[in-house]
Amino acid sequence: MANLWTTLSCTSRLSLSAFVGAALLAITGPTAAADDLHVLWNRQCGGCHDHAGDFARDSLRVIDGQLVGKRLGDTVNTYLEKHNGGYSPEIIAAMADMLKAQAGTPDLFRTMCNECHGLATQFVREQIVSRDGRLYGRYSGHDVGVTLRRHGGLDDEQAALMLQVLARIEREVHRP
Fold first, then answer.
1. What is the pLDDT confidence band of residue 35, given thresholds at 50, 70 and 90?
2. Are 10 and 68 in contact (CB under 8 A)?
3. What are phi and psi of 167, to 5 degrees?
4. What are 137's strand-pairing partners?
5. CA–CA separation, 100 and 94 (whole Å)
6. Which of 15, 33, 70, 72 is packed most tightly, with the most Cβ within 10 A?
7. End-to-end CA distance of the chain, in Å?
8. pLDDT confidence of 15, banded at 50, 70, 90?
9. Burial code of 27-63, b = ≥16 C-beta within 10 A, e = fewer?
């Protein structure tokens, strides 16, 4: 069975994303999009560009430390100054950092964790808290770094990478 999202036209995805974004904004308040880069992405970008990680891995590359679009060759920072009405320098820097990290990281969460835990961003929002620079299970209180070493069949290298990815996502969804 085809994924419903991929069968929708760009206009339909944009409309659906706008509806979901408006609903999230109504529920979480006006600062949620600026506070959570993934809500911002889903609301402003996901309708045409799908999942941020897929977009970053498929459409962007890092050249001389700059994140560049494969198709147009523009830096993401320059592009976001004008695209979709333009964004603030703070949002551009944060979005570029997020996409750069995703472009350079394999999608380990999707391949190893998604079946049980769903989307990484939702999992982090609902299940992970950061205290004193460490990640803990929101309900269990267990140190995520310790848990990853014995959970989900991850080897030591994968567990270390996964902890880095979850920590990055936690900073992106709970921005100050």
1. confident
2. no
3. -65, -40
4. 128
5. 10
6. 33
7. 41
8. low
9. eeeeebbebbbbbbbbbbbbbebbbbbebbbebbeee
Place of tokens 């911002």: 40
The pLDDT value given to residue 93: 94
Q: Is 55 helix (H, G, I), strand (E, B) or coil?
A: helix
pLDDT at 30: 38
Q: Give strand pairing partners of 130.
A: 135
Q: Write down the H helix ranges in 29-155.
A: 32-35, 37-44, 46-49, 52-59, 76-82, 89-103, 108-112, 114-117, 120-127, 144-148
The mean per-residue pLDDT over the stretch 148-169 comes to 94
Q: Give tens-digit pLDDT for 115-146.
A: 999 999 999 999 999 999 999 999 999 999 99
